[in-house]
Amino acid sequence: MPERSPDGDHRFDLIPEVYRDAVESVLIPAADIERKLDEMAAQVDADYADRELLLVGVLKGAIFVMADLTRRLTVSSAMDFMAVSSYGSSTTSSGVVRILKDLDTEIEGRDVLIVEDIVDSGLTLDYLIKNLRSRRPASVEVLALLTKPSRREVELPIAYVGFEVPDVFVVGYGLDFDEDYRGLRDVVTLKHEVYGG
Ligand code: 5GP
């Protein structure tokens, strides 16, 4: 039987035993993420009706958003991925963006939707949008599951936002700390002693 959180409710039920001690709180439960993805997919479907979408996932954090969003879409969509470095194992952005893996696809003339896990300072996304725009796509829009508006350093147009979160370090649903915790189905915060934040 799964253990209960200290106050006896079920919020920690989806968190594997091995991670429970490290988790401070469940910020966004899996069920809320699922519902939000339904809504976002319906919006994307409506906006891109009769167009062919190229979804560009930003590795590795966006893998679950990509997978779960794509399976909900009814418009024609292809997938490609980029990997950029913005965080090492630390928890603050350096502002320096390096492309570790570029797209496999030419995007000239195509409708591109960048799929992000989280937009924090916005520096990574700002770089990505400029970089992709220079390849002359028909359009570039952004879908982000999470955003931290209070941390923004550059103004960014994000067409589809899942949840606004406060200035806290979160993991789960693709987001890691030191490559761990990505597989958690909820978005959670960690105890301070775990990540030193
Ligand atoms: P930005 O350039 O917007 O500051 O940072 C974007 C990237 O930083 C995200 O794609 C993500 O990899 C990482 N990041 C920002 N905030 C968090 C957070 O709260 N938790 C985790 N795990 N990664 C974050």
Can you tell me about this structure?
The chain is α/β, with parallel strands linked by helices. The protein has a domain at 30-166: Rossmann fold (3-Layer(aba) Sandwich), CATH 3.40.50. Helix content is 23%, strand content 29%. It has five helices and nine strands. It is globular. The strands form two sheets. It has a six-stranded mixed sheet, sandwiched between helices. Strands 1-9-8 form a three-stranded antiparallel sheet. Helix 2 packs across helix 3. The site of guanosine-5'-monophosphate (5GP) has 20 residues, from strand 5, helix 4 and strand 8. Guanosine-5'-monophosphate binds at residues 61, 86-87, 93, 116-125, 169-171, 175-177.
Give structural attributes.
alpha/beta; 197 residues; binds guanosine-5'-monophosphate; 6-stranded mixed beta sheet; 5 helices
Q: Count the beta strands.
A: 9
CATH fold topology of the domain at 30-166? Rossmann fold
Overall CATH architecture of the domain at 30-166: 3-Layer(aba) Sandwich
Q: Quick one: CATH class of the domain at 30-166?
A: Alpha Beta
Poorly predicted runs = none
Question: Share of helix among residues?
Answer: 10-25%
**Class inferred from helices and paired strands:** alpha/beta
Question: Concise description?
Answer:
23% of the residues lie in helices and 29% in strands. The chain is built from five helices and nine strands; from the N terminus they run H-E-H-E-H-E-E-E-H-E-E-E-E-H.
Write the layout of secondary structure elements.
Layout: H1 17-20, E1 23-28, H2 30-47, E2 52-59, H3 63-70, E3 76-85, E4 98-101, E5 111-119, H4 123-133, E6 139-147, E7 160-164, E8 170-171, E9 187-190, H5 192-195
Parallel strand pairs: 2-3, 2-5, 5-6, 6-7
Antiparallel strand pairs: 1-9, 3-4, 8-9
Helix pairs in contact: 2-3
Bound molecules: guanosine-5'-monophosphate.
Guanosine-5'-monophosphate is lined by residues 61, 86-87, 93, 116-125, 169-171, 175-177.
